[in-house]
Write a structure and sequence with these properties.
- This protein has 361 residues and is mainly beta.
- The protein is 5% helix and 22% strand.
- Among the domains are: 107-145, no CATH class; 214-360, no CATH class.
- The chain has 2 helices and 16 strands.
Length: 361
């Protein structure tokens, strides 16, 4: 019989090779053997086996090493690779973490407040010139992208333009540009001083004098109060105005510094004297304290004596009429008159008056 022999062989193999040598398998292998043996020498053997081997291997790799899960490597989680989570291009996330007082990813700073005048802006950017916010104690102005060095109002270094337009700011004058007087202009952001002048101004001692615009470049150089007494206006009454630095004069007469009339003389007759008597055409302007013009009796200056004529002792400005308070002229030190400053350019002053002389360029 064959079966006991087969079983013996299987047992021997199993001892040497393990259970697989006898057709044994793991949990996923099934074997069935069916045999029929007869004495007649015919046998039927059926061997059916089914083997199933199933494996599943799935691998997922997400991430680029920046921790945001979007694969762009910028760490802001929006997938665009720019590191700017709010898309405004400033490098700051501007997100809910901005303002917590802790510098988080994508922030340049975070001071925990909304003050845009300190070192850290409310969107967690560091303050800088050109950001559109005036940094306290560091910047004079900041117009952001409008900063420029041609017309202002803010320079590119965040200092204020002296000029903002075609005219200087109200209240500024040549003295603000370090010069004596004249007409201040603008050249882009800078002052235009081509119409300004520099010279030493005269020293003045006398009654309170009317004030005139700095642009006129005229400064008081002599002043006197005239009463019925004699000798209050000296013979050399223009002594404080005698300088080649001063090329023109303004002579004013009135009750006080608020009520007066004046004439402008385009020659310093105390320094350069008169070439004729009278010398005509010297008066270029005449007005009262309000700027209202008046017309002198004559456009001429007169003086006694021989040439060159010196307007000391007796002299006349704007006409040579003696002692008529209604006449639009001035006569000084005329012994015929009751006042040393008579006529006072026709203001009909019945009492005390003052005489002022201005010199300039």
């Amino acid at each position: 019989m064959l079966r006991p022999q087969i079983q013996l062989l299987c047992l021997s193999s199993a001892l040497l090779l393990g259970p697989a040598a006898c057709g044994g398998g793991g949990a996923d292998e099934t074997g069935t053997e069916t045999g029929t043996e007869t004495e007649t020498g015919s046998s039927t053997s059926t061997d059916s086996s089914t083997s199933t081997d199933s494996s599943s291997d799935t691998t997922t790799d997400t991430g680029d090493g920046d921790g945001d899960g979007d694969g762009d490597g910028d760490g802001d989680g929006d997938g665009d690779g720019d590191g700017d989570g709010d898309g405004d291009g400033d490098g700051s996330t501007g997100g809910p973490d901005c303002g917590n007082g802790v510098v988080d990813g994508g922030e340049e700073c975070d001071d925990g407040n909304s003050d845009d005048t300190d070192d850290c802006l409310s969107d967690c950017r560091e303050a800088s010139c050109g950001d559109g916010f005036v940094r306290a104690g560091m910047e004079q102005c900041d117009a952001g992208s409008e900063n420029n060095d041609l017309s202002g109002p803010c320079r590119t270094d965040c200092t204020s333009c002296e000029c903002q337009g075609t005219n200087p700011p109200p209240g500024t004058s040549c003295s603000d540009a370090g010069m004596t007087c004249g007409t201040l202009g603008c050249d882009g952001c800078n002052f235009d001083t081509t119409q300004c002048k520099t010279f030493t101004t005269p020293t003045y001692a006398g009654p309170t004098a009317p004030e005139f615009d700095n642009e006129e470049c005229l400064f008081p150089c002599a002043g006197f109060t005239d009463t019925p007494a004699d000798g209050e206006i000296p013979t050399n009454w223009g002594f404080g105005c005698e300088s080649t630095d001063y090329t023109k004069l303004r002579i004013a007469c009135g009750i006080n510094s608020s009520v007066y009339r004046y004439i402008d003389v385009d020659k310093n007759v105390f320094t350069f004297l008169l070439t004729a008597n009278p010398e005509a055409g010297l008066i270029s302007a005449s007005a009262d304290q309000t700027g209202t013009p008046f017309t002198p009796t004559a456009n001429a200056v007169y003086a006694e004596g021989a040439p060159p004529f010196v307007p000391t002792d007796t002299s006349w400005f704007g006409g040579n009429v003696d002692c008529m308070e209604s006449d639009a002229s001035l006569t000084v030190n005329n012994e015929l008159c009751g006042w040393e400053a008579a006529n006072c350019f026709g203001q009909n002053i019945a009492g005390n008056r003052s005489l002022w002389v201005y010199a300039g360029q």
